[in-house]
Design a protein that fits this description.
Distance between the termini: 39 Å
Pfam families: HIT
Mean pLDDT: 94
Low-confidence stretches: none
InterPro entries: HINT (IPR039384), Histidine_triad_HIT (IPR001310), HIT-like (IPR011146), HIT-like_sf (IPR036265)
Helix content: 25-40%
Number of strands: 5
GO molecular function: catalytic activity
Largest sheet: 5 strands, antiparallel
Number of helices: 3
Strand order of the largest sheet: 1-2-3-5-4
GO biological process, one term: nucleotide metabolic process
Order of helices and strands: HEEEHEEH
Protein name: HIT family protein
């Protein structure tokens, strides 16, 4: 898919936002939703999406929405680093299929990285649902404890 096109209201993130598809939500406010990626590149891989925007990529997203997303990315990255103790963290955002975008609803990846562990190929290996539930509970508790 190219950089340009119409927003598909049936994309998986739109379905998650409408409650028509499940997710492992870790954070939500008026502007954004954050949840664990079910096809993670590493343990703790989180996606942050806007709730009201129908932007497909960074070329279309409203500046205020992007600002809210990035503020949440920063906040959640601090929580993830504090809770999971990775050696590094990768923040990624893809635009268009040649760049690696597979869902055409703008989103930002938070991917914890550990020394000596290769990141998985995104979309290839599905995480164990029980492990996701346990991690979700840990992160929700940590986020709740800091307000």
């Amino acid at each position: 898919m190219s950089l340009y096109g119409d927003y598909d209201p049936q994309n998986i993130f739109a379905l998650i936002l409408r409650g028509e598809a499940p997710s492992y939500k870790i954070y939500e406010d008026a502007d954004v939703l954050a949840f664990l990626d079910v096809f993670p590149q590493s343990r703790g891989h989180v996606l942050v999406i806007p709730k009201a925007s129908q932007a497909r990529n960074i070329l279309e997203v409203e500046p205020a929405v992007l600002g809210a997303m990035m503020a949440t990315v920063q906040r959640l990255t601090r929580v993830i680093v504090d809770e999971l103790k990775p050696d590094g963290v990768q923040i990624a955002q893809f635009n268009g299929a040649p760049a690696g975008q597979t869902v055409y609803h703008i989103h930002i990846h938070i991917i914890p990285r550990w020394e000596g562990e290769e990141a998985g190929v995104h979309g290839r290996g599905k995480a164990d649902p029980e492990e996701l539930k346990l991690l979700q509970a840990r992160l929700v508790e940590r986020i709740s404890s800091i307000g």
